[in-house]
Amino acid sequence: MRFQILGPLRLWRGSADVRLGPPKQRALLALLLAHAGQPVPLHEIVDALWHEDPPATAANVVHRHVAALRRLLEPELVSGTASSRLVRASGGYALQVSGDELDLLRFRALCEDARDAARRADPARAVESLVEALDLWRGPSASGIPPEVRALPVFTAIDDEHVVAVKEAAGHLPTAGAALTERVLVTLRQSAAHHPFDEALQARLVELLAAAGRQAEALETYRTVRARLAEEIGLDPGPELRAAHRAALEQSRPPAGDPAEAAAARPARTPSAAPARDRRTLASDPSAPAALSPAAATALVTDPAAPPATASGPAADAPEPTHPAQLPRDLRAFAGRGAELEHLDTLVPGPGEPAQAVVISGMAGVGKTTLAVHWANRLAPRFPDGQVYVDLRGFHLSGAAMSGAEALRALLDAFGVPVGRIPAELGAQAAAYRRLLAGRRVLVVLDNALDSEQVRPLLPAPDGCLAVVTSRHQLQGLMAVEGAHALTLRQPDEDEARALLGRRLGEDRVAREEGAASEIIGLCERLPLALAVVSARAALNPGYPLAAIAGELRAGHGSLDAFSGEPPLADVRCVFSWSYRALTPEAARLFRLLALHPGPDCSVAAAAGLAAVRPRQVRAQLTELVRAHLLSENEPGRYSLHGLLRAYAAELVEELDSRQDAEAAHTRLLDHYLHSAHAAEAALAPHRERISLHRPAPHTLPERFPDQKAAADWFDRERAVLLAAVDHDVRRGDGGYGWRLAAVLELYLDRNGRWQQQRTVQTAAVTAAQRGGDLTGQAHGHRALGFALSRLGQWDGADEHLHRALQLSEELRDTCGQARVHRYWAFVANRHGRHADALDHYRQALELYRSAGHLNAEGSVHNEVGWTYLLLGAYDKALDECGRSLAVHRKTGDPNGEAAAWDSLGVAHLRLGRLDRALDGFRHALALYRRIRDSYLEADTLAHIADTHLAAGRTENAAKALGQALEILEGIGHPDAEGVRGRLLELG
User: Fold this and answer.
1) 69: CB partners within 8 A, 6+ apart
2) Mind listing the pLDDT tens digit for each residue in 280-309?
3) Which of 763, 735, 597 is nearest to 221 (CA)?
């Protein structure tokens, strides 16, 4: 008999999982196990099960549950015979268990072994014991029992033991050697996510990341923790966390010279080259494992910090960099700010002069972004090599400020750097960015910055480039360390504020009601954001007197001075309130509900589901909100809320909508995204095994997709929203939607080469599923995370997560889940050249699929086995396996799998020198991929057609096929484009 309390409460008799009965009976068993053989008095049991309101029959109910548990534990026990398991003791009950039976006792024994090893100065053995102990955990202790019982101190104390063990493991690692670092890091990250305010735990994570050579990640972790402490509990980091930060800074600081040069000197981590087929076969449609040529798979990540090539070197034939023009449109209503603009113009360097960053700071709503954008548009002709703009989200309501790595990826992407060329480490990204801009004249606008540390990696080299930064903070660190120029923006004076009203409302109208206009300016304290909202109301109602508007402002607590000393949000609340009251009831309700959206923007369909109305109705409401300047339409059909307006809407939904209505709207929204993403995944890979979902909430409007291209386009548009929804649900919800959204995102993110985002989202999914005690979610998350890490060349972490996924899938009796883990392991084995191991994993996958009756998946595995034989040079066996795959997919009616098999057959014939038969196979595959509109695999097959033409000496035909493949891959932003581009250059 085995008991599990370190995670979901479970009991096994032999290999049979025993049903534990109703909730209070399960809670009683958990309580007894938590005391591990020690007696629990009856009054404590009653208090635990019923708290302060037990029924008169509580004691009798406990006795009945005890009797039922005895029958579960000792089914052979004769009625009336004393139990040897669940015994009466000290006026209560005790459950007799041994260390071999209860995971909690085994955990404690291993922790004690670790402490003994530490006392013997054997840190390696200590860490091994602690890792073994931590492997026993499946989530929070006693998951699944009633939450009011789970909240008791006895279970909290058990959870605390887990945290203590994690800290001890991390503390021993520096002297234990690097072999166990990755295993401890996995658990440490998860524990830190569960306990975001445990500074000692966060300090261990920062220290261990730094010690493992991941200084950029360590520093980013510290910044995240610091921001969370400040925002949610109003505290600065304590001494221990600050000390860990200082140590990480010391380790990241180069010994001498320019930090950028030191970063450039560090080579980027480059995964070992492998056939492109290996990079793509498994997390994409299991029924569509096609092939890429080996040449297209090499050098996924090149060193961005390498010295520039000479005119005769490899870079000489590289395409010219793009010249982005990303500045937001200048406002026609811009007025005033003459003195500020004159001062800013003096800060622009002349030809050959170095430029220092310009920081525009000031209170919320004072017009920092408006001024920065206006000035940047004036300067644009002086920076012919590009103008880029990034919203750093430093003061976003969700708290999700853009990380330095995310911002650098956006900047590098603006210049056309492929995803696969962007390094994983922050320092290497910054070095690549500075090197890219070296010698060019580029204007960089960094809007809404949180602090100096967020901005510093984003500053270009001062020779020729200019950075303009806006923030609510003064960013003194940039001034002290980087020599940045500062402009503190104040409210405009009376004349400038009047000019602003005149530009928006017309000079004649303002002149006619000069007194009312002056009163409005005074009541708004000349705050440009407040004046803009007032102007929008007046412009929409040209017959409405300005005096009446001034009267409404006056009635809002007399004047805006009533909010003096409050945060900037309070200064504009009354303005928002009357603007809101001018809306129709339907638009007002939508405005409130949009605060529930995770951001950054919302589609018409999502808004319709949120409001539970038809799309035609919601379009009218969205248009009304845009006209009132309460919503922005950044591109056709995509809507976003300004951060202050989102905060105001959040206040309103809490005040005016019942909790039940708000929760129902939020559920509809998440169901919209989850069921739409599920349908999109099904369109991308119709025969892929996937998670099952509950029915969507009433009035939810999931998207439907006619083909693979429509599904891929939808994922492209909604990717940022889906990732934000995962993050929001993991941080603020119960995590159920989070891990499911991550599961349906896996295929899309993998096919598009977004493996770093995959790592992030699947790590969050594992955390969410563990917190909720959801074993299915944990299995999916570990499996996808393991595969993502293998894509990134992080083999130890990949192996760890795949082991855990297999273990969980076996516990769940998920045959197809076990099979997919073996396919992922086969992928890893092939990447390492262990083809015999790969074939063994495929054999196990085939057996599992056969037992599950999943014929189509069997066909996919035959194709993958065939590809492995190609790698071994056993071409006849490859033809046999791929032929079997073709037959299966024809029988099951899977055109994607059929195309993959034709593609593999073509490669086999190409290797055997049968060029005509190879082209015949590739043409079959190409026609099928085009019919089902699978762009990525179409490009894959075009690359193989090019290989065949080259083998026949038809260089022109090969170049044409590669050109078509490159156009497709560049269109979807896939990292494989870089390899195809290189091949084209080689062909001249």
Assistant:
1) 21, 25, 28, 29, 86
2) 333 333 333 332 222 222 222 233 333 333
3) 763
> How high does pLDDT run on average in the chain?
82
Residue 486 forms beta bridges with which residues? 359
901, 913 contact by CB (below 8 A): no
Lowest mean pLDDT among 174-183, 253-262, 424-433, 612-621: 253-262
Contact call for residues 778 and 766 (beta carbons, < 8 A): yes
* Pairs from 264-267 (Cβ < 8 Å, separation ≥ 24): 264/305, 264/431, 264/434, 264/435, 265/305, 266/305, 266/427, 266/428, 266/431, 267/303, 267/305
Other CB atoms within a 10 A radius of the CB of residue 305 amount to 23
**All residues at 6 or more sequence positions from 9 whose CB lies less than 8 Å from its CB, including other chains:** 20, 26, 29, 30, 33, 142, 143, 144, 145
Band of the pLDDT at 859, cuts 50, 70, 90? Answer: very high
- Residues 454 and 705: their CA atoms lie apart, in Å, by 39
Q: What is the CA radius of gyration of the chain?
A: 31
* Extended beta strands in 59-105, E state: 86-89, 92-95
Q: DSSP letters along 618-665, please?
A: HHHHHHHHHHTTSSEEEETTEEE--HHHHHHHHHHHHHHS-HHHHHHH
Q: At what angle do helices 708-732 and 659-684 cross, to 10 degrees?
A: 140
Confidence bin at 617 (pLDDT 50/70/90): very high
Place of tokens 């075009």: 942
Distance CA 886, CA 898 (A): 5
User: What phi and psi, each to the nearest 5 degrees, are found at residue 51?
Assistant: 60, -125
Do strands 443-449 and 387-391 pair parallel, antiparallel, or not at all (unpaired)? parallel
Three-state DSSP at 126 gives helix
Total residues found in the chain within this entry: 988
Q: Name the CA dihedral angle for 29, 34, 36, 41, rounded to a multiple of 10 degrees.
A: -70
- The Cα 346–Cα 487 span in angstroms is 12
Q: How far apart are CA 203 and CA 812, in angstroms?
A: 36
In tens, the pLDDT along 6-53 reads 988 999 888 777 888 888 899 999 999 999 878 888 888 988 898 767
C-alpha 160/C-alpha 6 separation (Å) is 12
Are 286 and 860 in contact by the 8 Å Cβ rule? The answer is yes
pLDDT digits 0-9 by tens, 586-609: 999 999 999 999 988 999 999 999
In contact, 846 and 876? CB cutoff 8 Å:
no
The answer to whether 611 and 590 have CB atoms below 8 angstroms apart is: yes
Could you tell me the CA-to-CA distances from 381 to 385, 387, 453, 497, 935 in Å, in that order? 9, 9, 30, 29, 38
Q: Is the link from the previous residue into 636 a cis peptide, with omega within 30 of 0?
A: no
CA distances for 682 relative to 202, 529, 535, 891, angstroms: 39, 45, 48, 20
2 phi and psi angles, rounded to 5 deg: -130, 140
Range in 114-123, 267-276, 504-513, 851-860 with the lowest mean pLDDT: 267-276
Q: How far is CA 106 from the centre of its chain?
A: 35
Quick check: 18 and 31 in contact, CB under 8 A? no
pLDDT bucket at 644, cuts 50 / 70 / 90: low
What is the DSSP code string of 927-982?
A: HHHHHHT-HHHHHHHHHHHHHHHHHTT-HHHHHHHHHHHHHHHHHHT-THHHHHHH
